[in-house]
Amino acid sequence: MSAQSCAISLTVNGDPVSETVEARKSLVDFLREDLALTGSHVGCEHGFCGACTVRVNGVIVRGCLTLAVACDGARVETIEGISDAGEITDLQAAFEQRNALQCGFCTPGMLLTAQELLQQNKTPGRELIREHLSGNYCRCTGYQAIVDAVEAVAHARNGGKR
Amino acid sequence: MKPAPFAYAKARSLDEAIDLLATRSEARLLAGGQSLLATLNMRLSAPRLLIDINGIAGLDTIAKTDGKLEIGALVRHAQAERSPDIAEHAPLIARALPHIAHPAIRNRGTIGGSIAFADPAAELPACLLALGGEIDVTGPKGKRTVKAEDFFKGLFETVLEPQDVLTAIRVPAATAQSRVGFAEFTMRRGDYAMAGLAASARADGKGLADARLAYFGVGATPLRAKQAEAVLADGKIDAAIAALDDDLDPPDDIQATGAVKKHLAKVLLGRVARQLLERRA
Amino acid sequence: MKIAADNPSALTALDRPNSYIGRSVPRPNLARLTQGRARFVSDVTLPRMAHVAFVRSPHAHAAIKKIESTQAAKAPGVIAIVTGQDLAKIMTPWVGVLTHLKGLKSAPQYPLAVGRARWQGEAVVAVVARTRAQAEDACELVEIEYEELKPVTDPETALDPKTPIIHPELGDNLTFERVHTAGDPDKGFKDADAVIETTFVFGRHTGVTNEPRAIVADWNPSEQRLTAYHGTQAPHMMQNLFAKHLGLQEHQVRVVTKDVGGSFGIKVHTYADEMATVALSKLLKRPIKFVADRIESFVTDIHARDHRVKAKIGVKKDGTITAWEIDDLTGIGPYSVYPRTSGIEANQVVNLVGGPYTCPNYRARARVVFQNKNVMCQYRAVGHPIATAVTEGLVELAAAKIGMDPLEIRRRNLIPDDAHPSQGPSGIKFEALSHHAALAHLDAMMDYSALRAEQSRLREKGVYRGIGFAQFIEVTNPSAAFYGVGGAKISAQDGATVRLDATGAVFCHTGVSEQGQGAEAVIAQCLATSFGVSLDRVRVIMGDTDNTPYGGGTWASRAAGIGGEAAWQAGKALRQNVLAVAGSILQAKPETLDIRNGAVVDAGNGTERIGLDEVARIAYFRPDTLPPGFQAELMATRHYVPRKWPFAFTNGIQASYLEVDTDSGFVTLLKHWCIEDCGTIINPQLVDEQIRGGVVQGLGAALFEHCKYDERGQLLNGNMADYLVPMAMEMPDITVGHVVTPTADSELGAKGAGEAGTAGAPGAVMNAINDALRPLGAKLLTDMPFTPGKVLQALGRVP
Asked: C465 in helix, strand or coil?
């Protein structure tokens, strides 16, 4: 049966959530407005900037190109949950040390995307780092500091081996 | 922008999806949603019903049977990127996949969605055309298979009827004689191509047979450059490039003029022809 | 003045122990940004808050005949539908003119269009609803009858008699004209052995801040107070303007700025839709939120840099430049933007051309004309990218013409480092610059001769690489000469109020604000150093007009030089106050004491005498133990404004190394360098990162970014797929080095650094592309952005 609003049940950052939500509401708007998880940001709503990046069922997606209703039964993780779980502490520290963030708007998306890269590839070179981050817009840093930070974390996680 | 209001239904089977498509005249299928939701977010389109087909079982497999590789419509681009079967049996597709948008988009976007959406600047429709592939479609009257060269009709237009569901694509599995080539020009990594070329051929002694050159980004649909294909069989790259003047007449678009696109198409042929002639698939 | 080591640890003679000046300490308070706990205005929600969406004109120029909103008013969630006529009753229009730009004229602009829409995207009707989505639904139901008028969209013909006049009462479409002659340019051109003429074109582009413009306006009728949560760079300026145009007293308005997701000048202007939001809150007596979505951002965020510059240079065989001439035509929008005006960018172009060089012979004309396109105004490095590209383009053309190395021609013409104070051909005054030291440093840092050799070797293999330079000067730390003298209520001064709290930490309230550049960190580093505590004991309060000294905010690269100086002075003053208290407690002369590392110490031998927390405890809780007649003052406020120099000019030089694929026309940026002299460097990492970010915006201008308008005034590429911002894959690594020439106009000696990267990068890339293609006899490329199509045309590969 079809409906303009649907009841959904999902987990968000490990917590069970049950809400009724308009069919047209994007996942990122649902997270920001219904759950007050404002760490994921809205920059374009057409999938280009990456500021809305969240994790659904373990993989990064664009929160603006995902419907909340389509996440019934899904496991959603946002920057808040991933950060509190301690999963990216080294990335966060490296970003802060290297000033790989200025205004911070792109940062949650960058961190989640970088984390996915490092989970897939233990020794990414700078070019691969740039390629994997090629869908995350940053207007402030010019990207070099971000590449430096991700490279440093890859190196450290690899036990200092290249 | 926020989309105009719509209703949502989750289809549990192919039949249910087809039935739901019949209930509303402005209904759209929701698979990966990476193209659909972007257009809805810009209010370029306002369907009344979205039918979520992500839960339909059996549409996300990759299998080789009878010399062909079948890829289910719901296979995500990222899943395809990791697939050893695609790497081995459909190397042209493997080569094209990393150029599609960006990792987060590839995690959701589907092979079937890319073919059905038929953006003329997208990689996969051209790959399908270059490989002489076919598309499985199920509609109210049952299942049919459409050849790639019959599938793409116009700008974002395919033979899919309002109640059809694309269920799989199929390409001939690569053999020892298979040769593929792929190159594209984009302003930035992951952008839609200003001009791109997906090519396949069969090594025949020192030359090539069955060359299929499928351009994207240079017309309303992916296009085979048939005059150039005929000349290329003789190994004459320069003559094949010249023949493109007869094959292609790209329109201007926001990124480049038709003249620039045609020029780039020629450069692409030079590069891809070398790939076809020199490299094993 | 000296060349700094590329990773300096301490740079200055500002004599404080444990000094933070010159240290690349990480910014404090970044964790909230990396944990997703920031508070951007687009995150703000208030009780009873409603949302506004705007019906925007689809036409570039049209009379508004009829607005029919009955259907829209019945849509779900709708609270109000408001027109320009409605808002004109409670908000006065504004005119973007300043008296020091003689002859600058513009017409009144209203929060919602009244009578006419004058650019595609101008807000015509406001729809307020419970959710943004509902407001957008109702927008689609508003019916507006327009009568299309002929749009003015070609700057070249804007002043022709046959062209419609956008504001008939103004008489023509000329916003502003400036002419300048210095020295004897006619003689200069006559004396030249070669005169090179060309036309530079700069594509209109825009800021694309990652967080769009956002405001939550909250009029509280019971308090008769407006609180605006606003992603603005200049809170006090906006406080003044909201009050003025709503008929309120300034103290009835509070502007609060929290985290701002990027600005670069985009958010320092007055926007009609934001003013409308504020007016709506007053009208409807509840909080109203407006966040521009990306599509509306492209047609409403200020555009910039739409210039056509005809330029000429005279040069002798020995490399001496003999004259400069420019004719700059720029097409803005239908209004000069308020309050900074849209005449400033062209004015800066006239001011800055030829700036680094000794040749005094200069003729310039700049004309700013109205267009039926989106408004244009100050965006990072205002005018500098154009003036620098024109100047540096001409210099390298001259060099090529006479067969001289491009660095050599610069050496022969740059103002000598020991010739300061000096001035540029437009009369701008330089305190002290380091052009030659910067050039020498760049030469060494990039190993120029090795790159030339590599370029040569690769040319023989048919690989075409180019090296291009751009020497630049940069306006920073502006005095009142920038805006104040023209009548703008824009503060050139700034203040810092510091207080020692009850446990020995230091609070600093400052009038400068943060958009990510690190203003908070820089203020903290200055204060921590001058007062004498570690950085973790400093808390900086910014972005709140109720709680900060009256100040200018952050723009024109002023936060470090001006805000930092105020904090530095306030720290010194507070130290004196604290030592007075300590002295009276310890029965010691305050001048024998100092504050170091959070404690009062003996100034001579550094022995700790009493902790700051103890001083505070006594002052706050046991003043009965202090001598009679003694009043402890554990707060101090100091202000600072540059007085000796209208602007603190910085200088530097950039180089671009790139490869042009002559088959496809694509340009690959291989490497980029920048030597920057911004005086005393407070935090080297932050300065370098400002340079990098600025360079990349300039690289975007050179290769990617262009707001494309058709002849009907329609923006053709107003979305993220078609307007190309630089992404990680296409950008090079950028190496930054420094020379240090402090300004004597402040004790810290810090100049600004925020915009230099953007100033020089486009010119350097242009010069590099032409350098790459010169041996192929390609036509000169002077029309930014340098797309593959343009490169192919220059090579004659496409018609």
From this structure: strand
C518 contact residues in A (CB cutoff 8 A):
99, 102
Quick check: is C756 in a domain? yes
Nearest one of C272, C280, C347, C260 to C302, comparing CA atoms: C272
How confident is the prediction along chain B (281 residues), in pLDDT tens digits per residue? Answer: 999 999 999 999 999 999 999 988 899 999 999 999 999 999 999 999 999 999 999 999 999 999 999 999 999 999 999 999 999 999 999 999 999 999 999 999 999 999 999 999 999 999 999 999 999 999 999 999 999 999 999 999 999 999 999 999 999 999 999 999 999 999 999 999 999 999 999 998 878 999 999 999 999 999 999 999 999 988 889 999 999 999 999 999 999 999 999 999 999 999 999 999 876 54
> Based on the domain organization, do C755 and C704 belong to the same domain?
yes
Domain parsing of chain B, residue ranges = 7-52, 62-172, 178-278
* Domain end residue (candidates: C603, C619, C640): C640
pLDDT at C2 over 80: no
Question: How many interchain CB pairs under 8 A, A with C?
Answer: 177
Quote the DSSP letter at residue C502. T
Residue C8 pLDDT level (bands cut at 50, 70, 90): very low
* Distance to chain C for B1, nearest Cα, Å: 6
The residues that bridge with B179 in the sheet, in sequence order, are B201
Cβ pair B33:A70 closer than 8 A? yes
With CA atoms as reference, the chain C residue closest to A84 would be C35
Q: Which chains touch B (3 or more CB pairs under 8 A)?
A: A, C
Query: What's the count of helices (H) and strands (E) in chain B, helices before strands?
Result: 12, 14
Locate the chain C residue with the closest alpha carbon to B259.
C798
Q: Is B105 on the interface with A (CB under 8 A)?
A: yes
Split into its structural domains, chain C has a count of 2
* Overall fold of domain B178-278: Enolase-like; domain 1 (3.30.390)
In tens, the pLDDT along B27-64 reads: 999 999 999 999 999 999 999 999 999 999 999 999 99
Pair (C746, C780) in one structural domain? yes
C710 at B interface, C-beta within 8 A: no
Distance (Å, whole) CA C609 – CA C375:
61
What residues of chain A lie within 8 A of the CB of C27, using their CB? 96, 99
Same domain, C596 and C705: no
Nearest CA in chain B to C726: B188
Answer yes or no: do B9 and A69 touch at CB < 8 A.
no
Return the C-alpha torsion angle A136, A140, A141, A142, nearest 10: 70
Question: pLDDT value at position A97?
Answer: 98
Count CB pairs under 8 A between chains A and B: 103
Q: In what order do the strands lie in the sheet with B223-224?
A: B178-185, B195-204, B207-216, B223-224
CA–CA separation, C649 and C519 (whole Å)? 19
Give the integer Cα–Cα distance in Å for C795 and C785. 16
Q: Considering only CA atoms, which of C636, C595, C634 is closest in space to residue C495?
A: C636
How far off is chain B from C482, nearest CA to CA, in Å? 38
User: Per residue in B235-275, pLDDT tens?
Assistant: 889 999 999 999 999 999 999 999 999 999 999 999 999 99
DSSP secondary structure letter of residue C113: -
Set of chain C residues whose Cβ sits within 8 Å of the Cβ of B42: 295, 719
The pLDDT assigned to B23 comes to 87
Q: Please, which residues 43-62 of chain C have a Cβ atom closer than 8 Å to chain A?
A: 43, 45
What domain range is C472 assigned to?
438-486+643-799
Q: Would you identify the CATH topology of the domain B7-52?
A: 3.30.43
Pairing of strands C734-740, C667-677: parallel
Tell me if chain B has a CB within 8 Å of the CB of C721: yes
- The H-or-E segment that residue B28 falls in is strand B27-30
CATH topology for A5-82? Answer: Ubiquitin-like (UB roll) (3.10.20)
Q: What is the ipTM of this complex?
A: 0.97
Predicted TM-score (pTM) of this structure: 0.97
Is residue C630 situated within a structural domain? yes
Q: Has residue C177 been placed in a domain?
A: no
The architecture of the domain spanning A88-157 is: Orthogonal Bundle (1.10)
Give C718 to chain A, closest Cα distance, Å. Answer: 11
Question: Considering C640, C671, C706, which residue would you say is the last residue of a domain?
Answer: C640
Domain of C675, CATH number, reads 3.30.365.10
